[in-house]
Amino acid sequence: MNVTQLPFNQLLGLQKCQNQDDGILELPADPKYLNHVDTVHATAIYGLAEASSGQFLSDNIKVSKHSIVPILRRAEIKYRKPGMGSLFSRGVYNAEDWDQFHATYADRKRALLSFPIEILDEENAIIALAQYEWFIAEKPKDDE
């Protein structure tokens, strides 16, 4: 899945990262994202983080993406410093958490998965840290 193709993410102008080796998405520098103190608006930062969590999930999940329904269950974000210029996202992969998710999903065909997303500025300073919890379930079978 490419979350940049979703209509809301297109409205935000999100792009796949080109400049960051381990980056997920980019919110390019643009005056339309600025708030009343000329820094990137908190809502734009949150939009980048939320979309990045979906892309990170899609990029790292080991079950068929066509057979599941992922639903965002909980989100938390902490803004550490003002955002300026282009912003980038990076997912934090914890193998133990992902292994536990895959084991639970294999057994129950549904599971929770929680992971952090970092938002960085052009100097690679973390300006926000978000935590997203996803509920992933097997798609219902069509009744025939």
CATH-derived topology = Thiol Ester Dehydrase, Chain A
Low-confidence regions: none
The CATH homologous superfamily is named Hotdog Thioesterase
Give the strand line-up of the largest sheet: 1-2-4-5-6-3
The top-level CATH class is Alpha Beta
The DSSP helix count reads 3
Biggest sheet, in brief? 6 strands, antiparallel
Give the topology string: H per helix, E per strand: HEEHEEHEE
What does the average pLDDT come to? 93
> Measured on Cα atoms, how large is the radius of gyration?
16 Å
Q: How are the SSEs ordered, and which strands pair?
A:
Blueprint: H1 7-12, E1 15-16, E2 25-27, H2 42-60, E3 68-79, E4 87-91, H3 95-108, E5 110-120, E6 126-138
Antiparallel strand pairs: 1-2, 2-4, 3-6, 4-5, 5-6
